[in-house]
Amino acid sequence: MALVGDLKDINIATLVQLNCVEKNTAQLSVGTTKGPATVYFNKGEIIDASFGDLRGEEALYRILGLTGGEFRVTEVTELPGRTIFTSWESLLLEGMRVIDETEKGKTKVAESVGTDLENAPGVEYYVVASKKGEVIVTNQPGDAERLAAGAVILARKGREISSQLSLGEMGLARLVTPKTLTLFMDCGSFVAAVVAKKGAMAEPLHALMDNVREKLKYCELAPVQREAETVGKE
User: Fold this and answer.
1) What residue ranges of the chain are covered by domains with CATH 3.30.450.30?
2) Contact 24, 41 (CB under 8 A)
């Protein structure tokens, strides 16, 4: 009998540990926007993992960083070739270390984005936050949480609308007042909100937003440290 649920309700590391401790021979699959993520267990040992083009331990570490998506655990009788030979205890410890380093790298990238926005003509204030609304960097502490919450809500609604209409990704929303233009962006692991003067030049401003969104959106487990180092040299 399959076990089905959502990673919002249970940590994936807990799922992995549970299958290992109970010595299951099973397949753990997670549906993600980047494609399926799969881990195979043989009598409690992790023997294979795949995520997109990744396979083996690198794929497993990426999977351990997932925080959302529907999962399914099913018993299996046929297993793939073994690509992972490290004990599951060591894999989980290393996976947690990689995730911690990744989060530090993501924060560095977010801080560099704040510097870009700080120096951009026409931008009055900004906030970059996590998908939970936790403020990471801002130049307007008083309004930061309110803007972050708005960005989180609009990002969630944008994904729902995009999914229902099947018209592609909805990554940016605009709110216009007589004096300001506020841009809310869904940036993968982050959300961002930027308030600019109404008269700010549209083309440079939107080019900046595209750059900000690209930097934040592609903070992934494997390349994040290299990206943070590259940003630091700019």
Assistant:
1) 103-233
2) yes
pTM: 0.53
Q: What architecture is domain 103-233?
A: 2-Layer Sandwich (3.30)
Of the candidates 76, 79, 49, 80, the residue with the CA atom closest to the CA atom of residue 65: 49
| Dist CA 131 CA 156 (whole Å) | 9
Asked if 221 contacts 102 with a C-beta cutoff of 8 angstroms, the reply is: yes
Whether the pLDDT of residue 183 is over 50: the answer is yes
pLDDT at 229: 37
* Alpha helical stretches, state H, the chain: 12-21, 57-64, 88-118, 141-165, 202-217, 224-233
Q: Which residue blocks in 65-140 are alpha helix, DSSP H? A: 88-118
Tokens of 176: 């216009």
Q: In the numeric block, which tokens belong to residue 194? A: 């930027």
- Asked whether 98 and 58 are in contact (CB, 8 A), the reply is no
Name residue 127's amino acid: V
Q: Which of 196, 206, 193 is nearest to 122 (CA)?
A: 196
Report the DSSP pairing between strands 123-130 and 70-75.
Answer: unpaired
Nearest to 97 by CA among 192, 212, 13: 13
Block residue for tokens 């399914």: 72
Instruction: Pick the range with the lowest mean pLDDT from 61-65, 71-75, 130-134.
Output: 130-134
Reduced to 3 states (helix: H, G, I; strand: E, B; else coil), residue 49 is strand
Cα gap 156→7, rounded to integer Å? 16
SS3 20: helix
